Amino acid sequence: MRHLRSFFAVLVLLSVAPAQQQQAKLSAPTYYLAARVKGCSAENIDVVGASNLPKGAVLQVQVTRFFHNAWADFSDPAYSTVNEKGYFSATLRPKQKMRFFNNLVVRVTFAPFFRGQPQEVLKVVGRRGQKLGDWNNPQLGQVSGPYFLIETIDRVNSCEGPTLADLPVVSQSKRDN
């Protein structure tokens, strides 16, 4: 009976080992950013994320919402750094006289032109971001001229602040004046 248990234990170990080896071989075809709002209230939003950008890459994290063909920012930019394991985090606070609420968006952006981007990172991704990947990368964006960035968003959900319905409606005529 003892030998039978040992046989099954070895069999289980052997079946798990190939799965672990196969998982280690997986890699992304290009650079990526993934972010999630971990928690929020009217006064702060916590964001966590992962990336395969080089260690030390500086990311901009900001709370915003869609407004016509642009963004309406609800926080000043916060900056986070990708650590040696590929993770990052940030805590954001609303702009003065503003509060966070449901259905806002958190934007996380990597761009080589952000102040303080380490030279080691720029060597890998290019001074203009030209090594961030090709147009098959759904997160790749191009800004003025030959400068590239990658960006992701996550929806602010289950926040304790006011809802969009609680905010005053601004008519088109009031916005134009």
What portion of the residues fall into strands of 2 or more residues?
Answer: 25-35%
CATH topology: Immunoglobulin-like
Portion in helices: 10-25%
The CATH class is identified as Mainly Beta
Mean pLDDT, to the nearest integer, reads 82
| Secondary-structure element order, N to C | HEEEEEEEHEEH
Label the structural class.
alpha+beta
Overall number of domains: 1
Q: Distance between the terminal alpha carbons, to the nearest Å?
A: 87 Å
**Biggest pleated-sheet summary:** 6 strands, antiparallel
Radius of gyration: 22 Å
Describe the structure.
- There is one protein chain.
- The chain is of the alpha+beta class.
- The protein has one domain: Immunoglobulin-like.
- The protein contains three helices and nine strands.
- A hairpin with a 3-residue loop joins strand 8 and strand 9.
- The longest helix is centred in the first third of the chain and has 24 residues, at 2-25.
- Mean pLDDT is 82; it is low at 3-26.
Spell out the blueprint of helices and strands:
Layout: H1 2-25, E1 33-40, E2 45-51, E3 58-67, E4 70-73, E5 78-81, E6 87-92, E7 105-110, H2 119-125, E8 140-143, E9 147-155, H3 172-176
Antiparallel strand pairs: 1-2, 2-6, 3-4, 3-5, 3-7, 7-9, 8-9
